[in-house]
Amino acid sequence: xxxxxxxxxxxICKSGTSVKIECRSLDFQATTMFWYxxxxxxxxxxxxxxxxxxxxxxxxxxxxxxxxxxxxxxxxSTLTVTSAHPEDSSFYICSARVPGLEGEQYFGPGTRxxxx
Amino acid sequence: AQSVxxxxxxxxxxxxAPVELRCNYSSSVxxxxxxxxxxxxxxxxxLLKYLSGSTLVKSINGFEAEFNKSxxxxxxxxxxxxxxxxxxxxxxxGYQKVTFGTGTKLQVIP
Lengths: 116, 110
What we know:
heterodimer; A: 4-stranded antiparallel beta sheet; 11 strands; 53% strand; B: mainly beta; 6-stranded mixed beta sheet; 4-stranded antiparallel beta sheet
């Protein structure tokens, strides 16, 4: 089956620093990837849609200058949290759409970000 | 606006008992419906999906869900749960953009 990996799985950083999270599709090419944020005891909130070779589409209320997304290749999308603050601490999950599989997304294992 | 509603945040059930996790979707959600499962400290895994055709869809581990258009529901059921089914279950709908419900924690009691 389609496999999506994320790196790192956990990261702790100091307030004011930037953190990059990688999302890779391991055995398929993904023209579209998605970035979600999951708060404790809440559902996944779509942050942005990442399209290979073009700018990401951000959801309303998500700061594009704070959450930088780069989808430079068909197997890699990155999310950079710039000038992180404690309120950015969360579980970030990426997913990728498999071409030809309608609506279905394969999810990465997630990255737990803690900003101190 | 698109919405997917999971009415129960937690469902405790004894091992080998049947379970139903409820999910309702708004009519604005395109009728691609999914159930995902999230085990502790892991990412989401697709459990089953409805795209078209037969309204009853089944997973390989005994779960099934039925698409009910008149009731705008897509409830998840299993006739006999196992300890290993303890996880959080998310109902979702949509095609280009997928909207997730708030999740239901299934706790199987030995």
